[in-house]
Structures are given as structure tokens and as C-alpha cells.
């Protein structure tokens, strides 16, 4: 498949992955604390220990909300650049696009989209767009962008299964490998994640994932770099490409995702997330 077409399939497949497979919410209020769970197995314990380094979802709830600049760049140098705003309680999501060459590129003008906890909406130059396919794209994007930002903290969400696969050495580094699957309805495509956890730092340096809903059953490899902001570690730089199940890169062509200018606790008004 031509690279640009493949990356477009992967992009929209990732959106569907987050919308369809990661639907389980973190049912924790702002006043509750996440207690150490009864571990399913060693894999579950390793993921829990990872969140002790990155922070857990309660730590995000304590920070209330966030605003940051986000860039999604494909190998052909086309970009989405957005100002992302989230409220963690309810996973409310809003994006104002400074550039949208990958997301709804046929719609010309200033693009704004949001999720208020119930409904998704889209505006072009301040005017509501009701096209069903465009709204479906918004639903994918809002849920995906939020999930990729908060993924490490959300790996303790309910409805997740963990399987410890042992230790491997790749690119000269030793990792504990944990397979992650999601409890979903039988008619929903279910993806697989394979986390490579650094035993020295307890962080996920990279992970494999599939996009079954778009018939991408061969793995993709995501590599992650973190930055400590406030009380949490945030994956501020990510890149992914084609791989095999041993995390060997098959195509040294990468899609990049860059998070910068992160500001927590901005006292966002919920009206921002409604149209």
C-alpha cells in the first residue's frame, strides 16, 4: 500500500480504536483516592507500578483541566495543529485548529470541535456543521486525542486484562513485556497492546498496538518520551510506524505527535465544550 494511504488508514483506525475499544471510563470522583488494587497477575502489578511514576488518573483529576498545543505530523509533512483543552472529570474535550491538513481537510476555514460529555459538535468559521460523517470524525478525534494524552494514567481503567509475557531485549535494552486487552462487546473490534516497560525506570518506553477495526492486524510500534509537568509525567513526544511482534521496525517512516505549552488547572468553563 502506498505510504500516504497506509498512514491515512492508520490515522483513522487509531481514532476508531480509541472511540470503540477504550470506552471504559475511570469511575473515580475528585475526592476519591485510587487504592492499590488486587492484582490480576504480574503484568497488572507492573502497570500499577508504572502509574506510580507517571501519576494515576486521580492525579489528573486533582489537576482539574489542561490546555496545550498539539501537533500531528505525517511523513509527507502534512499537519494538524490544535489547541487542545480537556476537563478530566467526564473527559470533556475541545480543539481549536490552527491547521487541519489531516483532519477534515476538505472543510475550509477555522475548525473548532468539542465533546461535552454527551454530544460531539463541529464548527467552521463559527457556524455549526451537522454533516453526519464529519461529526463521526469529530467523535473519533476528540476521544483519540484525549486517550493518547492520558493513556498511561488510564491503563488502570476498569475492563482491562493484563498478561505478563516475560522479559526481552530489543535495541540493546531489557524490557518487561505486558500484553493488554480490553473487555468489549462481541460486536466491537478489540485491539491488543503490548507494553515494553523499562525495569529500571518503570516507564513504558514503547508499545505495540493493532487497529482491528480498520483491518490493521499487524502491529504498529509507538515510541514515547516523557516530561515531568506538575505532579505527572506526560508523553510529550510520540512517534509510530510499522513493526512486527518483536518490536522490530519494518518501515523507518514515522508519524509524529508533539505536545507542548502544557498548562494545568486553567479553570476552564464547561461552556467551552458545548456548542
Task: Provide key terms for this protein.
13 strands, 13-stranded antiparallel sheet, alpha+beta, outer membrane lipoprotein receptor (LolB), chain A, single chain, 275 residues, 4 helices, disordered N terminus, globular
Kindly describe this structure.
It contains four helices and 13 strands. It is of the alpha+beta class and 275 residues long. It has one domain (3-24, 39-273): outer membrane lipoprotein receptor (LolB), chain A, CATH 2.50.20. Strand 4 and strand 5 form a beta hairpin. It is globular.
Uncertain segments are 1-32
Number of domains: 1
The structural class is: alpha+beta
Largest sheet: 13 strands, antiparallel
Determine the strand fraction and express it as a percent band: 35-45%
Q: Give the number of helices.
A: 4
CATH topology: outer membrane lipoprotein receptor (LolB), chain A
Backbone CA Rg: 18 Å
Shape, principal axes of CA atoms = globular
The CATH architecture can be given as: Clam
Mean pLDDT: 88
Provide the CATH top-level class.
Mainly Beta
Number of strands: 13
Q: CA-to-CA gap between the ends?
A: 39 Å
Please give the order of strands in the largest beta sheet: 6-5-4-3-2-1-13-12-11-10-9-8-7
Oligomer: single chain
Amino acid at each position: 500500500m502506498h505510504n500516504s494511504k497506509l498512514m491515512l488508514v492508520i490515522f483513522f483506525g487509531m481514532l476508531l480504536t480509541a472511540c470503540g475499544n477504550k470506552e471504559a471510563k475511570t469511575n473515580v470522583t475528585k475526592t476519591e483516592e485510587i487504592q492499590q488494587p488486587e492484582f490480576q497477575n504480574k503484568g497488572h502489578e507492573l502497570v500499577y507500578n508504572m502509574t506510580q511514576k507517571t501519576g494515576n488518573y486521580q492525579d489528573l483529576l486533582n489537576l482539574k483541566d489542561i490546555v496545550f498545543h498539539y501537533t500531528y505530523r505525517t511523513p509527507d509533512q502534512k499537519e494538524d495543529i490544535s489547541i487542545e483543552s480537556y476537563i478530566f472529570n467526564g473527559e470533556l474535550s475541545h480543539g481549536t485548529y490552527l491547521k487541519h491538513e489531516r483532519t477534515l481537510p476538505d472543510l475550509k476555514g477555522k475548525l473548532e470541535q468539542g465533546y461535552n460529555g454527551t454530544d460531539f459538535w463541529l464548527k467552521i468559521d463559527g457556524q455549526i456543521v451537522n454533516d453526519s460523517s464529519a461529526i463521526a470524525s469529530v467523535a473519533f478525534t476528540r476521544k483519540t486525542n484525549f486517550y493518547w494524552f492520558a493513556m498511561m494514567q488510564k491503563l488502570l481503567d476498569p475492563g482491562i486484562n493484563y498478561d505478563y509475557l516475560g522479559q526481552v531485549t530489543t535495541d540493546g535494552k531489557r524490557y518487561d513485556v505486558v500484553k493488554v486487552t480490553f473487555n468489549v462487546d462481541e460486536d466491537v473490534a478489540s485491539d491488543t497492546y503490548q507494553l515494553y516497560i523499562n525495569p529500571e525506570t518503570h516507564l513504558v518506553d514503547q508499545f505495540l498496538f493493532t487497529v482491528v477495526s480498520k483491518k490493521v492486524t499487524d502491529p504498529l510500534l509507538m515510541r514515547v518520551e516523557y516530561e515531568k509537568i506538575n505532579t505527572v509525567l506526560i508523553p510529550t513526544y510520540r512517534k509510530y510506524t510499522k513493526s512486527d511482534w518483536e518490536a522490530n521496525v519494518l518501515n523507518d517512516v514515522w508519524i509524529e505527535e508533539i505536545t507542548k505549552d502544557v498548562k494545568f488547572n486553567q479553570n476552564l468553563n464547561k461552556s467551552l465544550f458545548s456548542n
